[in-house]
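Before the break, one more example. Copy the sequence into your notebook; we will annotate it together after we see the structure.
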Amino acid sequence: GHLAPAASFNFSSGGDTEINTSIVSKSGLIAFRSDGELSVNENALLDVSPFSVKFPDQLRTAPAGIVSLLSSGDLSIDDPTVLDFGTDEFDGEGGVLELLTNSNLSLALSDWEPSRGNWSSGGLGLRIQADNIERDLDDVLFLNGQGFDGDIDLLLTGASEDINVAESQKITATDLRLATLDGQLVVSGNLEVSDATADVVLHGGAG
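Here is what the structure looks like once it is written out:
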C-alpha cells in the first residue's frame, strides 16, 4: 500500500516470512523482522524513493528513505529491482539499504541490470551483516558500483568467512567499515574513502 511521506512501516514475524506485496513510503522507513527465514520475491515493491513537493518557483526534494531487512535465518532477495531508492529526476542520495541476518545472504545479482529505480547517482548507504554472502564480495562490489557508495558497513560473522578485496577490485565510500569475526581480511585492491566522518575500520578476526 501507499503510506504518507516519511512514514514508517514495521513488520515482525515469529517464523519464516515471504514479502510479495507493494509498499510505498516516500523518504520513509520500510522494516521487516523475521525470527525465521526472510525472502523478498519478484512480485514485491519496497519504495523509499525521495518525496518531492513542487512550488511555483522551485522543487523541494527530501532524501531517500531506509529499507531494513533483518532475519534470524537465511535472507534472500529474488530480484533487486523491487528496491526503489530514486530516479534520474529525484536523486536517491541519503537512502540506506540494511541487510542483517544470522545466516546466509543471497541477493541474486549475478546477471542483473537495473531496470527500475536509478541508483547510479550515488550517495546511498549500505549496511550488511551476515554469516556469509552467497557470491562473496561480488554482490557488495556490484551494489557499490550502482550508487551504494555512501556509508558502507560490512561484517561477516560466519566461521572462517574471509573478506578479500582483489587487486582488480575497488570499493568507493564516504565512510567504510570492513570486518570479519573469524576470517581474514585481505585488501589487495583499492579503497577510496572521501569526506569521512569517522575512522576507516578494517578488521580481520583471524588476521
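The first helix runs from residue 138 to 145. The chain has a mean pLDDT of 88. Try to locate both features in your own notes.
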